[in-house]
Design a protein that fits this description.
With 93 residues, this protein is mainly α. The protein is built from 3 helices and no strands. The radius of gyration is 21 Å and the shape is extended.
Length: 93
């Protein structure tokens, strides 16, 4: 009868998150960016799409200070904001 109880004994193998682990901001290096993002969320009724600019700035801060792996902002979903930035800059002749 004990053999009937062993049919589902697959072992669970944990795996890391897709983007990996990254250190917490213990020294508050990006806390001003985080606060701007959180304030934006509060003012927009927690509509994250309205706060993409502060979110991008926060992630840039984390990447600059090696608090997360460097990723192209396009891969993080900010391609349209980057395109807007480049269009807003006047071209130098």
């Amino acid at each position: 009868m004990s053999t009937a109880m062993n049919f589902g004994t697959k072992s669970f193998k944990p795996r890391p998150p897709d983007k990996g682990a990254f250190p917490l901001d213990h020294f508050g290096e990006c806390s001003a960016f985080k606060e701007r993002f959180m304030e934006c969320l509060r003012h927009s009724g927690y509509e994250s799409s309205a706060c993409r600019q502060p979110a991008m700035a926060y992630l840039e801060c984390r990447m600059e200070r090696q608090l997360m792996a460097n990723e192209p902002l396009e891969k993080l979903g900010f391609k349209d904001l980057i395109d807007e930035k480049s269009e807003a800059k006047p071209e130098k002749l």
